[in-house]
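ok here's DNA-directed DNA polymerase:
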Amino acid sequence: MYLNCHSYHSLRYGTIPVDELIAQAKTCGVTALALTDINTITGIYEFKKRCDEASIKAIVGVEFRQNNKLLYIGLAKNQNGIGEMCRLLTKHNLSKTELPYFAPNFEHVIIIYPSENAPENLRDFEYIGIKPTEIIKLFKPDWKQFIPKAVILQPVTFSTKKEYNLHRILRAIDNNTLLSKLTDDDICHKTELLIPENELITKYADYPEIIKNTEFIINQCHFEFEFKTPRNKKFYTKSKEGDRLLLEKLAKTGLIKRYGNNNKEAQTRVIKELKVINDLNFSGYFLITWDIVQYSKSQGFMHVGRGSGANSIVSYCLGITDICPIELDLYFERFLNENRKSPPDFDIDWSWRERDCILDYIFKRFDPNHVAFCGTNVEFKYRSIFREVGKVFGLSKEELDGLSKAKGRQIDSNSVVKYVQEYGMMLEKYPNQRSMHSCGIIISEEPITNFTALEMPPKGFPIVQFDMYVAEDIGFEKFDILSQRGLGTIDEAVKIIEKNRGITIDITDISLSKNEAKCNQLLSIGKTLGCFYIESPAMRGLLRRLKCDNYKTLVAASSIIRPGVAQSGMMREYIFRHNNPDKFDYFHEVFKEQLGETYGVMVYQEDVIKIALHYAGLEASYGDILRRAISGKGRSLKELQSVKEQFFISCQKKGHPLKLSEEVYRQIESFAGYSFCKAHSASYAVESYQSLYLKTYFGIEFMVAAINNGGGFYRPEIYIHEAKMSGAIIHNPCINKSCFQTAVYGVDVYLGFMLLNNLNSDLIQSIVAERELNGDFTSLENFINRIQAGLESIQTLIFIGAFRCTGKSKSQLIIQARMLLAHQKPTKNNLLLMEEPTKEFQFPLLERSYLEDAFDEMELLGFPVSCSPFDLLETSYKSEVVAQNLTNYLKKEVKLIAYLVSIKQVPTKMGMMFFGTWIDVNGDYFDTAHFPKSLENYSFKGGGCYLLLGIVEVDYHFPTITVTKMAKMPFKPDPRYANSNALQFKATEQLRGDISTTERAPYPQPHEINIPRFKMIDQ
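and the structure:
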């Protein structure tokens, strides 16, 4: 009898999660329940499943509203009815047109109008809802006419009085107003909650016709949905057989290209995989992915196929991935197997510059009515919750700031703040708005509006109204089209090298970089700054601890650096065994045979499959079920118990003693929840090698590309420093040499105008465009005549030295600019047909020191270019200790001055610990550790140079200084502000130190890791 229920998917309106709504209905004896969220179908699929489990008839629909005014409620008679309503909503959302005041001619939808919005003449499928509060009006003559087409309408929006208050808060947030200013039209009625069904029917006892009409509607609605049916586009060609033949042809062609004609192992594996792919109807999925990659290659774009898709030799032969699964012993079953009924997904990366082009191709290549981005529910987050809730209670900005920083504690006893915290905590994990999934695209066999309405977020691609989990649940598997800046850096570096040196590099030939001795040598000492995935201080430290000098060790390092693996203690154990191969025994012979590459330590998700296969004797496909079950990938406790039982049954059949099998299972169980796919690590390692190769042999061009792509762990200053260390001569921006991005000419690197703090992009583009069209600028006056720019922008360019090509000093140029622009308003300037000779002015001689230039640079770029930060220090102290000779001072106290690069805050059992990365006077990097006790008296005080005192420690080849004392060193005063003490250190205060924070539990100590280093006898 409940035909109008809202869940919390009625954003900023409903308060009840779907499962709680159904639980309440069960308690109230409800036999049929309709979910009609406002202008969305987001919750209907979860609702259907939960209703079936509760033996409640699920009716699904939509409540159509325009500007919060209820127009009508639509109930789907069947799946076609959902499609009709979704198409109406899609038109409204995508074309920004208003919803029709009265419902269109639906064929599979029943419409219920509120009494205040009912049309004079009702069609067969239309009814009028009468709320319990309106029953008394049915005595009136003008209301009696409704009775033949009237139904029970008891809306449900909240569960308790407290939730009603939460509803009011949500409405105030949505309307951006104070609670006290809400009107009755803004909020629901206080009666909109579930009551026992027999109690509801009793209210209409005098009107049996209304009850009968309601029952008729319930009987008319039959929403059935087959969740296990795949919904992705079925065929790339026109049939399953056509797809099979094409995929086989492409795979065999690629097989010859990758392996030659005589690789029996590869040939056997390709045949095996093709059979599984065809049997599970995934040929079309592979071919669609291949099509997208082929387009990418035709455009000259780089891509990286990663994730479990790289476990497939077919995807390797198709060019989707570049990881040989035979070389790395990757199990296809990790990606696809007979027991995996949901489709797999490929994760493919493109450069951040080219991803939109790929997306545009996908939406045009496949019918736009069948393609959409996956949605995502953006939840209320802690800090934003208290700001939002606090605003509707009328709290001041200061109070809101205090609340947002007071997680988990009461900051005030006054009643308003108490209510803000109380209701704010209720809102955690509530959906706040729908947004676009960062990378997931759905390509559907049927029009997507058969299943969902589409919305149009600001990015310009339509999205479905449910998230990736619902998508997978109802038969869709997304294509992950990702972007990253690391690929952009590699791609641009290759292009810069060809332009600057005339050298063409096929960077996709991974053997070029993977087997290169010099690259491996630099890898082993952590000289990897700027390189994808291996440039962070933590990763560079790990590479040095491992003396990582080969591909397979890098693959392992890429996995064990992951937070979960490191936090479990597996990273620490792997480092120990790697450096001490004679100080441990393999736990069991199978661990030696199958995990010898990683010293018997489980490092990858595939290791679970290996142990299940070779120790327990399970099928490889069953091993993947074990991995997924233990890691919580959509498996119930009942299924997990079944998998566990099967594991021990198989172990018993193999003759293993129970105690031994229990320890193996314990290791699998403790491992699987945090493990990392080996193919994913391998893909990352390949890209790391590509960037390292470019840095090793073309360091200047590579670092320029890193600067221009704006990604990476560090700020531009550090990449500029790296370019300098690679032999570049760094020049400040120049009006005749610089572009928007940083440019390189030979070894001369001209910083891009984009790095200037206060120069707008339109002006930058106009400078470059004008120069390309009409040639170099010949003087300041010539520049002003040709470029529309105000005095402030001109002064910025002068102070950074962009007019040095004119041969005049900054002081002369400033005077000239002010004379030329003193009474001139910026206008659209044009190149003069006959340019008058430049007026020559007599300027006084104004001397400028190198210090003034350095401080100009710090003010405009954020760092000095023309000199080193060490040149600006007051002290002349020089230390014999430098990064390169730290290992000579093991366990000794050292003192040195260094420039701060980055700080990382990490929790430990003693409190928050800091790790610093620094540059010494020679430009080399080193790292420090700062324990909580030392930080009490010697804390970080922003960017700049510090005098450090500490003890040198070496942890498996990686030296660090454990700092006991440190002090920030003063810079020379800014001579530009010699008459103002307040401004003499303003520029140096802007110097930065990149800060990152890790929020996790402390790493375990060696005795807590609990991985046996001894052998258990199998008998």
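+1. The first strand starts at residue 2 and ends at 5.
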